[in-house]
Design goal:
This protein is 36% helix and 15% strand. The protein is of the alpha/beta class. The strands form six sheets. Strands 8-11-14-7-15 form a five-stranded parallel β-sheet. The protein has a two-stranded antiparallel sheet with strand order 1-2. Strands 3-4 form a two-stranded antiparallel ribbon.
């Protein structure tokens, strides 16, 4: 049985994020029941298109789940109730009283900054939980924890580009710094619609425009992470640029020229893998990201995570040869973590063989020789054997 929202929480004009919280409350009040955006809109007396966008945002955050696509139906998850906690009856205006002048902002934006301060930067002193529950161990960036540095850059409106080989932790540090971020995963097939949204058919046969992560991030005042940004066609990536500069505004041509303004807190950070085929760092892209940070594997952290010292030694040796230009590949933290998991299941020799197997063909001979010198035995890439 659906539970209508009380009239007090349906004002004619809602604050940023308020509709999303109202939708979350409806889902939480009807846990276990699949609900369409149209049904929720009827309860809330709101536009089904706006409710559909709120449902999509909740799903992106893990605060709602899709039950079916025809019709499009949503249900509550374990975290939906938390998202609904902010649904409250607006408090009456406070009674006027004499107050001292408000203190200045703790982190004022520098002159010319395009984004107002969000005051989100707090110096961390230990591991930071990522949204997936895993710990991220901060590293130093200009004398402070990288997580804190990114948060301060957001406050100052300085866009950051994190670049380095795959598996070095670019996504991890961004997730640790901005757990509320939205993500666009870039590749050669990424389109403008993947950023701004497109029309989708509803359960009653109508078409509504469902906004994409760029629009939602701008409206909610949260960071947008563009992963593998340099794989995205430059003409597509250009849709983000007006939101990053002094305009902080985009025009969604596909939705009748809708104008979207960025709320305070909106920020863009991107990832770039220079060695990936097809990755092109254009002048236009580079100029938009005033700060560019190289991210490499922290082999000391690998040892701290109790990864087999032999595997870490192999990675260090290969990284040294890679830096000298002798080879083009070396295992990063991602491969070392995979090594440890494989060793726990199939044994250290199989895990070492997999290190050889995942190496690019042109570097495999050198990798195999390095593994042999460290492990003291010849290993082969994993392959199926005779029939049992």
């Amino acid at each position: 049985m659906t539970t209508p929202m009380p009239p007090a929480v349906t004002p004619s004009r809602l604050r940023s994020g308020e509709l999303r919280a109202m939708v979350a409350k409806v889902l939480a009040d009807n846990t276990g029941t699949g609900m369409t955006p149209r049904g929720i809109a009827h309860i809330l007396n709101r536009s089904s298109g706006a409710v559909g966008n709120a449902c999509q945002t909740l799903q992106d955050r893990g605060e709602a789940a899709t039950v079916s696509t025809a019709p499009l139906t949503y249900t509550a998850t374990a975290t939906t109730a938390n998202a609904a906690a902010s649904v409250i009856t607006p408090a009456p205006p406070p009674t006027p009283r004499a107050t001292a002048p408000a203190p200045p902002a703790a982190n004022p934006a520098p002159p010319g900054s395009s984004a107002p301060p969000t005051g989100s930067a707090v110096t961390v002193t230990g591991p930071v939980k990522r949204p997936n529950g895993m710990d991220y161990h901060p590293r130093t960036l200009s004398g402070m924890p990288d997580v804190t540095a990114l948060q301060r850059l957001r406050d100052a409106g300085v866009a950051a580009l994190m670049y380095g080989p795959p598996g070095t932790g670019k996504t991890s540090v961004v997730e640790a710094a901005f757990p509320d971020m939205l993500t666009v995963q870039g590749d050669g097939d990424t389109t403008v619609a993947d950023f701004v949204g497109e029309y989708t058919q509803t359960d009653d046969g109508r078409y509504v425009f469902v906004h994409g992560p760029l629009v939602r991030a701008m409206r909610d005042g949260v960071p947008l992470f563009i992963d593998d940004a340099t794989l995205i066609p430059p003409t597509v990536l250009a849709v983000v640029y007006p939101a990053m500069d002094g305009r902080r505004q985009i025009i969604v041509k596909a939705n009748a020229g809708e104008v979207v303004d960025a709320a305070p807190g909106f920020y863009v950070v991107a990832g770039h893998n220079p060695g990936v085929h097809g990755a092109i760092l254009t002048d236009a892209l580079s100029s938009r990201f005033a700060l560019q940070v190289h991210v490499s594997t922290d082999y000391d952290l690998a040892a701290q995570l109790k990864i087999d010292k032999r595997a870490v030694k192999v990675a260090r040796n290969l990284a040294t040869r890679q830096a000298r230009g002798e080879i083009g590949w070396a295992p990063q933290l991602r491969e070392l973590i995979a090594y440890q998991k494989i060793a726990g299941v199939l044994g250290a020799e199989a895990a070492a063989g997999n290190l050889v197997g995942v190496a690019p063909e042109e570097d495999r001979e050198v990798v195999a020789a390095t593994v042999k010198s460290v492990f003291g035995t010849t290993v082969q890439p994993l392959a199926l054997g005779a029939r049992i």
